[in-house]
Write a structure and sequence with these properties.
By secondary structure, this protein is α/β, with parallel strands linked by helices. The protein has ten helices and eight strands. 35% of the residues lie in helices and 17% in strands. α2 crosses α3 and α4 packs across α6.
């Protein structure tokens, strides 16, 4: 199914199950099929699950020169309002997690049951006082290093064949052109969402990967200490960046427990 945004871009989305809504948000260069090991688990637990391809990703429409993460945050808000999704849980991976931080900041009156952010520091740029950014990028180096990307292995031991089988056909049909979307990645890198987490008044679980090639999971402890009433940290072992695919059973256990508690 497709949802048309206020500026006419169609977002491809899927709905499965019934019950309390859970919205799954993929990251930069991702596809909604990355959640294929979570959707049946959530449906089995009695939730309605909404996945979607973000603007400029997958089967959704494209905007030339997309350069603002705020645009994707607004898309999420429009989707929730347009589909009449009330009091959802939001679960986002990587850039999708950053969008959750932004959503909490920009739409504080929108009622959420809770949110899970997967392996995403709220501030990507490292500074002398913040050592939890993306690898070693700084304000001086982020454009060059993100453009080059480097020979970095995103996962620890790859992802299961079942996930790859779900991703393969959509990647072939809707290839993601990284170079065309670098302005979006640059904007993502410049954001600082720490104040959003510090001021959050909805339950927020920060899931980190012990072998993430990108982030030091200690950022989640810093954030939990800054907002102990609402923010918790759960670390998953033996996984790289794509936690929900690499260690689906462990991630689903953490996810299920959080949803039950809230």
């Amino acid at each position: 199914m497709d949802f048309r945004t206020s500026d006419g871009v169609e977002l491809n989305y899927q709905v499965e199950g019934s019950g309390e809504p859970v919205v799954l948000i993929h990251g930069f260069g991702g596809y909604q099929q990355i959640w294929c090991l979570q959707v049946p688990e959530l449906v089995k637990q009695g939730y309605q699950v909404i996945t979607y391809d973000q603007r400029n990703h997958g089967a959704s429409g494209h905007t030339t020169g997309l350069g603002s993460l705020d645009h994707l945050i607004a898309d999420l808000h429009e989707l929730l309002v347009g589909l009449k999704i009330e009091r959802p849980f939001l679960i986002g991976h990587s850039m999708g997690a950053a969008e959750i931080y932004g959503f909490i900041k920009q739409y504080p009156d929108f009622p959420l049951r809770g949110a899970i952010a997967v392996d995403q520091s709220p501030k990507m740029l490292n500074t002398p006082r913040w050592h939890y950014g993306y690898m070693d990028i700084t304000r001086a180096s982020y454009r060059l290093k993100l453009k080059q990307h480097g020979n970095v292995r995103e996962t620890l031991n790859g992802v299961p064949k079942k996930v790859l089988d779900h991703l393969a056909p959509v990647k072939e049909m809707f290839p993601f052109v990284r170079a065309d979307n670098l302005p979006l990645l640059y904007d993502h890198a410049k954001k600082d969402w720490r104040s959003a987490i510090e001021g959050a008044q909805v339950p927020l679980l920060l899931v980190t990967a012990n072998q993430s090639p990108y982030f030091d999971g200690a950022f989640a402890d810093v954030m939990a200490q800054a907002n102990p009433n609402y923010v918790r940290h759960a670390a998953v072992d033996q996984t790289g960046h794509v936690v929900m695919a690499e260690q689906a059973a462990k991630f689903n256990e953490v996810m299920d427990q959080f949803l039950v508690e809230h």
